[in-house]
């Protein structure tokens, strides 16, 4: 697969033209909602003319369409923001541009990042890179697909409960959900502020580490950002790897378990110590997640009222009608479902029973992780119980769709880093990822470990 260094060998114009050409050739995947062609070509000329330099000079990339970026609208895959032109750029995009990287387009997602398949996009689903009858995964499905198709060597996504890791797994690329607070969320459409993270897809652990290194660091516009701790490293010691028992049960597809076991065997033969560990609170993690996250969504999405942002409903007579119709027309069903659940669990009669209880359970989950990290460097398991499922297979039953998030939501609730690394393909040719979870700020270690086990190492 194409790496950053492959694009670095070309002139910036050639690199950008190549990426744009590949993007147009692969339109049937519906992975991109727009191209930022004019701006990209102008920036390429500036790189070739020596006006822009940096560690990613002339390297094309794609951003999920919930990042504010110049050159095309920022839709969050909704009709509400169909024509919304960003007045500023996300800090993450600014930092990459400062190193010479060139954004060529904006990737498809589940509207407002609510989902795990990209089927909730108002612009139709993205298709899986290995089988177009299957989902891309989500919510950052488009970003995973453009990376897997070698359109660009890296693409940005957001991960609130698995939205980078799961599509990375479904498309056979590396996906990084960093420690909460690693990268500024400024200029990224908010979903759930206490678990939203900014990360990347790439084809190698090294490329992912470079991109994360550039994006990480304090931003005065996001008070939750951590001082930059991300230092790419190489693995110089043997680790203790904990295999999470709850992730390897019969509920997980046999071929997924087999590929993950294969990865663990490889780690073992490299001299790492393998132990089995218990994370009992996992059983409650989906319940916690689908209370806390909708609660935060209902609050964050209150701003889309047709007055301050986006498309306004027409032919209305009262203010209430303006709000109501704008939101009814602009949000997809899944957005509305979450706003309703969130409003319910935050309402005065139910706050204690649901929201507060979920937050208490979250603390217990965090404690369990902390205990395990006293003895384990890395926890390992699958990313998802299945490979990419068929388009339409889970759309009729939202709970079925939520159940597929069972392995990714716990690290999000705990704010710990978790990455998805290719573990091979099933007999049917579908990629499967292995999830590596570490303690807070161990992001670079996870990537170094992943690199040590990469195929050509
Ligand atoms: N699939 C999860 C959800 O629907 C994760 C979404 C995300 O990380 N943005 O909430």
Explain what the structure shows.
- The chain is α/β, with parallel strands linked by helices and 457 residues long.
- It has 15 helices and 11 strands.
- It has helices spanning 4-8, 12-25, 37-48, 91-98, 141-148, 165-171, 205-215, 254-269, 282-300, 319-330, 333-346, 351-372, 398-403, 409-414, 443-452; strands at residues 32-35, 60-64, 102-107, 154-159, 174-177, 197-202, 240-244, 273-277, 378-382, 418-425, 431-437.
- Helix 9 (282-300) crosses helix 11 (333-346) and helix 9 (282-300) packs across helix 12.
- The longest helix has 22 residues, at 351-372.
- The site of glutamine has 14 residues, from strand 4.
Question: What's the topology here?
Answer:
Blueprint: H1 4-8, H2 12-25, E1 32-35, H3 37-48, E2 60-64, H4 91-98, E3 102-107, H5 141-148, E4 154-159, H6 165-171, E5 174-177, E6 197-202, H7 205-215, E7 240-244, H8 254-269, E8 273-277, H9 282-300, H10 319-330, H11 333-346, H12 351-372, E9 378-382, H13 398-403, H14 409-414, E10 418-425, E11 431-437, H15 443-452
Helix pairs in contact: 2-3, 5-6, 7-15, 9-11, 9-12
The structure holds glutamine (GLN).
């Amino acid at each position: 697969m194409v790496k950053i260094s492959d694009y670095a060998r070309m002139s910036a114009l050639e690199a950008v033209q190549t990426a744009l050409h590949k993007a147009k050739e692969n339109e049937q995947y519906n992975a991109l909602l727009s191209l930022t062609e004019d701006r990209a070509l102008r920036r390429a000329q500036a790189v070739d003319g020596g006006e822009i330099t940096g560690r990613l000079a002339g390297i094309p990339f794609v951003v999920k369409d919930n990042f504010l970026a110049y050159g095309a609208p920022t839709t969050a895959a909704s009709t509400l923001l169909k024509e919304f032109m960003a007045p500023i750029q996300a800090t993450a995009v600014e930092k990459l541009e400062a190193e010479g990287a060139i954004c060529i387009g904006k990737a498809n997602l589940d509207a407002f990042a609510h989902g795990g398949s990209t089927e909730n996009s108002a612009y139709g689903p993205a298709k899986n890179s290995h089988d177009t009858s299957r989902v891309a995964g989500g919510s950052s499905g488009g970003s995973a697909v453009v990376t897997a198709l070698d359109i660009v060597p890296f693409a940005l996504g957001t991960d609130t409960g698995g939205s980078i890791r799961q599509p990375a797994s479904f498309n056979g690329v590396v996906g990084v959900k960093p420690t909460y607070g690693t990268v500024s969320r400024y200029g990224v459409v908010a979903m759930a502020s206490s678990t939203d993270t900014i990360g990347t897809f790439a084809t190698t652990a090294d490329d992912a580490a470079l991109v994360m290194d550039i994006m990480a660091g304090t931003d005065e516009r996001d008070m939750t950002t951590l001082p930059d701790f991300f230092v790419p490293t190489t693995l110089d010691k043997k680790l203790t790897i904990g295999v999470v028992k709850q992730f390897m049960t019969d509920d997980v597809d046999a071929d997924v378990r087999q590929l993950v076991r294969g990865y663990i065997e490889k780690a073992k033969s490299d001299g790492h110590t393998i132990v089995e560990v218990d994370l009992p609170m996992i059983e409650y993690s989906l319940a916690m997640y689908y209370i806390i996250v909708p609660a935060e969504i209902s609050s964050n999405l209150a701003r889309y009222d047709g007055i301050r942002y986006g498309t306004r409903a027409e032919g209305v007579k009262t203010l209430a009608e303006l709000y109501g119709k704008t939101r009814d027309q602009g949000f997809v069903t899944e957005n509305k479902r979450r706003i309703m659940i969130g409003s319910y669990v935050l309402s005065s009669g139910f706050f204690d029973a649901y929201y507060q209880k979920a937050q208490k359970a979250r603390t217990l989950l965090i404690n369990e992780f902390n205990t395990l990290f006293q003895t384990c460097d890395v926890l390992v398991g699958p990313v998802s119980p299945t490979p990419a499922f068929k388009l339409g297979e889970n759309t009729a039953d939202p709970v079925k769709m939520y159940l597929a998030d069972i392995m990714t939501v716990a690290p999000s609730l705990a704010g710990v880093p978790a990455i998805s690394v290719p573990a091979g393909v099933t007999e049917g040719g579908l990629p499967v990822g292995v999830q590596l979870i570490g303690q807070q700020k161990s992001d670079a270690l996870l990537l170094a470990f992943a690199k040590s086990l990469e195929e050509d190492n």
